[in-house]
Amino acid sequence: MNRVIIGSQWGDEGKAKITDLLTVNADVVIRSQGGCNAGHTVVVDGKTFKFHLVPSGILYDGKVCFLGAGTVILPEFFKKETDDLIEQGIDLSNLKISPLASITMPYHTEVDGFVESTTTKGKIGTTKKGIGPTYTDKMARIGLKIQDLYSLETLSEKLDVILPQKNKVLEKVYGLQPYTKDCIISLCEMYAEIFRPYVCFNWQEMLETFKKQNKNILFEGAQGVMLDVDYGTYPYVTSSNPIAGGACTGSGYGPCMIDEVAGVAKAYVTRVGEGPFVTELTDEIGKRIQDIGHEFGATTGRPRRCGWFDAVIMRYSALVGGLTTLALTKIDVFDDFDEIKVCTAYKDSRNGKIYYSYPTDVYMHKYLEPIYETHPGWKTSLSGIKKYEDLPENAKKYLSRLEELVNIPISIVSVGPDREQTIFR
Ligand code: GDP
Ligand code: IMO
Ligand code: MG
Predict the structure, then answer these.
(1) What is the pTM of this model?
(2) Ligand 1, atom 14: closest residue by C-alpha
(3) How far is it, in rounded angstroms, from Cα 263 to Cα 256?
(4) 25-98+216-260: which CATH number, 3.40.50.2000, 3.30.70.20, 3.10.180.10, 3.40.440.10?
């Protein structure tokens, strides 16, 4: 059984918690896209682990954790994350990186930071981890891959092409310092040492063996469908493909390898950074959700914007994300709420037009108003409940209505951050 787990909103849905739970039955966990812009939290017996690049499956003994070709790796960040995990006694002998993964160079983080700090109109609000510039160079065919670090001849040949272009742009466009070839080569020597214990040069044989042996593979998504570079709220997105299709391009396995796509959604919606958000609550209720749900970024610490569950984006996400089942998290955040709202459609304030399908021109979203239906709360704590049948009637009705609106079955309900606080249906 091979499963893809993806975020179905704007990230931070609780993917890592769900991945961690489902890793029990997996042999291999693969990250296919994104980089250290991700912040994945797992709570085990009250102890909190935060992952950015390393797949959360590393907490289990004997599970292979693979960073695929579609990921982008900031070497200094990778070193810090792996050093911290080793210090906490986590065994990293099963951590492997594709030689085809892209490297985030210092000029990528510099450009990301520069653009973020000098742009006002149209600012994205990135994590400043160099994600966009690294993917830009990959697509422009002037990126460095991990395998380049282990051949001076390759590196030298590539840098002769990359550096003249790169330096011209750094100096003339951004007014930043150029890099000498010697400087980049010595950085790359350091990177080669950082990655050496983990680079998986025989990744083809490894993937082939897993396939032949019918190993259970879990694809751990990062970010979320609405941050997808092709389908999200472009340009307010990340630069990779968090949709289920990204699991294929970024891992080395084809679509026929995938049996199930689990979308993770919060019982409300959050977003970090800029960009449209039709159901955003800028009032006391939004603040209340933020406080109870501890909605602060796991990577940047920025407060997450909060709003009501949006069935319009969820139906869209189910389609383009390729979802076959849903894991609904953080429903416990509403334990004390008298009423819970759900957005079923949008209304264009200019002409009254109703949208049931997601309108993709995000520059028009400022004219959209959410149409809500209101559900009564359950006014009791859900955190200790283990069985679906034991949920209060109002919680069950709310879940059924979400299933109906999104047209995808909810197979997991998460009622707290800990592994144990989960209801399987
Ligand atoms: P990810 O990026 O999708 O893996 O999500 P994050 O780790 O960035 O954010 C999710 C946060 O919610 C983390 O702090 C989790 O520990 C927490 N969390 C996950 N599921 C639940 C839940 O059902 N209830 C509550 N209260 N917290 C949860
Ligand atoms: P996980 O995996 C939430 C957002 C950033 C910004 C936009 C572009 O923890 O769900 P980037 O640095 O990627 O160029 O920033 O994407 N973003 C995330 N938001 N969760 C994430 O990851 C995110 N990764 C990127 O806030 O709006
Ligand atoms: Mg996160």
Answers:
(1) 0.97
(2) 41
(3) 18
(4) 3.40.440.10
